[in-house]
Amino acid sequence: xxxxxxxxxxxxxxxxxxxxxxxxxxxxxxxxxxxxxxxxxxxxxxxxxxxxxxxxxxxxxxxxxxxxxxxxxxxxxxxxxxxxxxxxxxxxxxxxxxxxxxxxxxxxxxxxxxxxxxxxxxxxxxxxxxxxxxxxxxxxxxxxxxxxxxxxxxxxxxxxxxxxxxxxxxxxxxxxxxxxxxxxxxxxxxxxxxxxxxxxxxxxxxxxxxxxxxxxxxxxxxxxxxxxxxxxxxxxxxxxxxxxxxxxxxxxxxxxxxxxxxxxxxxxxxxxxxxxxxxxxxxxx
Length: 285
Hints:
Rossmann fold; eight-stranded mixed sheet; 8 strands; 34% helix
C-alpha cells in the first residue's frame, strides 16, 4: 500500500553483545499512536505486516518489530527459549522510548507475543495471538493431532534434539506445508506479502528456523496461566499447521483470554480477521 511515511530500521547492541535489527513505522510520534510490537512467524524476518498498514493508519497504530535472533540482521542467541523474546521486545521498546505497548503475533510469533504478556505484565496493554501453538507439554492436548504430515515431521525432529532437527532440515524437500485452499487464495492476494519476509529469513540458512522449532518443543520459560493482560486468541478451524485445538487449550489456561474461532479458515487466511483483532486491541487503550 502507499503510505506517507517511511519504515525506519535500526540496529540495537544489547548488553550481552548481541545485535537486534528492529523496525519502526512511526518514529518519534510519542503517545499519538498505540505502539504494537509485532512478533513474526517461522521462518520470517520481522518487517511489520504491510497488509495491515491501511487499518493501522485508520486506528492510529505504530508498529514496532524486530528480527528474532538468527534471522535477518539479528545475531543468533543459541539455546534461546520462547521466554527470551520478552526481554528482546522490551529492549527494542526501551531504545525507542516506549514504556507501555501492545503485542501481536502470528503463527510461531504468537507464542513469543504471549511471553511478553507473562513476563512484562506491567508494560503490556494487551495481546493478539493468531494461529498459536500450545506448550509442548500441554496437559490433555494431543499436540500433533490435525497437523499436516510435513509440519508434524519437522516438529518431531525438533523434539528429538538439535542434531535430528539439523539433519531433517538438511534433507527436507518442498512438501505440502499444510495450507488449505483458503490459504492459497490469501497468499495470491494481500498476503502475498509473506514472500517478502520468508526469502530473506532463509537467505543465510535455516539457523533461525531451527532455533525457533527447538524452542517451541522445549519448556517455554513461563506458564500461560500467569498471563493477566487481556488476550485475544484468533484461530482458523481448518488450520493444519497449528490446529485450532492449540488456541482452545490456551483459552482454557489463560484467565484473561477471549477466543475467536474462524470457521473454515486456515493458517494464513485467518488473517482476514486481523483488522477486527486490531480494533479489539485498540479498544483496550
